[in-house]
Amino acid sequence: MFAVHLRSDSLSLVQLKAARVQRCNTINFNVGSWQTALHDAMTAVPAGCQLHVVLAADFYQLVQLDKPALAAEEMLQALPWQVKDLVSIAPEDIVADYIDLPGHGGTQAKINVVVASLSWLKQLVSIISNAGGVIASIQPEEWLAGELLPVASHASMLLVHQPEQELLIQIVRDGLLYFSRRTRGFGKLHLSTEADLRSGTLDRLQLELQRSMDYFESQLKQPPVREIRLLMTAPQLMCELLTESGFNRVEPLQPLPLAAALSNAELLSCWPAVAAVCGQLKEPTV
């Protein structure tokens, strides 16, 4: 089994063999030349192999909506018209999918809708199919970060920061994604020294984390977050600073057994592709 994570300027290819990640390669390329890079990467994927495709945020848009009162078979047909005024893709070129968002109690049920360009996806599918690959799934990276955590009845917060990217904050409980947002202003977090963090960055980060926790507890009526896991450059320093600031059980993310051989740098680079294969094999634990 293979998984590929496609970004605007790089892609990561992961191979799963004997329930272990055996390959984790990242290829950089010029923005706009993803087609050539993907074609070249497919030479490492044997014909007929299943491939899970994970898209970076450059290639889709997310919208949260009240869940329409429609039968499941009607939902996907209706979604393009539900979101057409909320996204920048022409209605006739929209392809959409959704997940239910849990935890809204007696309030209106919500869904998280992913929207992408149909014409762009056709290019993607064509390149993979012509290379002999068999697409098992195409997913947005936001829906996968929680796969890096063991399934547990308590709530866990996951912070993911890749260099030059927005900070991803998610809260997962019972293996379900309850909360997800990208926070601007932290693109250079990987370059921050302890002095930089203490001079204001840490305060802003703490505020964002507390706001996210407050929403999870007050609006979604959920118990407090029990732990925070970090996937970023130099996570230990951030763990120490957040613990010093009063947050409990803050630790670097430990990869699941199938990805145990990966270094923090490899996991940070390839996590969406790793998460895609984790989701196929992960067993529930408490």
From TrEMBL:
Protein name from the UniProt record: MSHA biogenesis protein MshI
Organism from which the protein derives: Rheinheimera lutimaris
